[in-house]
Amino acid sequence: MIDDNVRASRQTADQRPELQISFEFFPPKNDAMEERFWDSVHKLAPLKPRFVSVTYGAGGTTRERTLRMVSSIKKDTGVDAAAHLTCVGASRDEVDAVVRGYQAAGINRIVALRGDPPEGVGQPFTPHPEGYQNAADLVAGIRRIGDFDISVAAYPEKHPQSESWDVEIDNLKRKLDGGADRAITQMFFSNGDYLRYLERARAAGITAPIVPGIQPIHSFKQISSFAGRCGTSIPAWLAERFDGLDDEPETHALVASAVAAEQVTELLDEGVTEFHIYTHNRSPLALALARILGRRPVA
Ligand SMILES: Cc1cc2nc3c(=O)[nH]c(=O)nc-3n(C[C@H](O)[C@H](O)[C@H](O)COP(=O)(O)OP(=O)(O)OC[C@H]3O[C@@H](n4cnc5c(N)ncnc54)[C@H](O)[C@@H]3O)c2cc1C
Predict the structure, then answer these.
(1) Given 24, 163, 248, 270, which residue is catalytic?
(2) Residue 273 reports pLDDT greater than 80
């Protein structure tokens, strides 16, 4: 029998003040997208996230836009903003110049990543001849420049290029031991994968937070195609829930909301207190999830 008294998801927000959320956005490509971006930022900022982050386009293609967006978010909303940064295809000097640019703009949070080669996600990675070798090397480089809050990536189903769990966890440990403050996970849909990853990390002596990256399913078709490329599996039960809903947007949205709510409720009940929500620059599902986590807008 379920005992509601012992479930964290049945506590009120003031009974779990340690709860933290963050939201991830991508830099808009045109005016229409920019309008949706700001609409979402302005709807989510009053939920007082710990930070919102803005991604860095493949190979640095959004360098200026990422910087412009994080700087404006901080100025416009007062919410702390984190800039993503990748080291693929760039020399150390070029990457360091971007870090100094963030520093000069008052951005003190970086999500430090290796990035993927131009041939695509999962293709072999060759570092730039004068570049950082991987994300761990990049973290060390950022630390040499300044006192940033650094997040790195973690993969509950293993990064496609990690040959074994030992390689995966060793790499995560190198990034955290090298000065990162927390890891944020790739999206996953089986909470068991995340909880087993946590166990593996803790067994290897990793104590830093490993924050689950929650992907609300705005479009099952798009998410399942992206999942295939980045090594996230789509469980059969999840595919079954969205089966036949491509042309039924209302039911699709309701199922997506139920699926995401179920995922965070289970994680809350497992003792998870920090969540990173991938917004895809849309606010409705992120707002609903934040509400389930007990967040209300603060004027
Ligand atoms: C939260 C999050 C945010 C992201 N944001 C962005 C973004 O803004 N822009 C973007 O382009 N991409 C982004 N990505 C994707 C990321 O760039 C890719 O997943 C990339 O393939 C790996 O980056 P990493 O930082 O995890 O690399 P790393 O930690 O360097 O690891 C990559 C792989 O290489 C292996 N490896 C590392 N060092 C060694 C070594 N010395 N010897 C052998 N193997 C090694 C690791 O085991 C792992 O399999 C994000 C991913 C996540 C989870």
Answers:
(1) 24
(2) yes
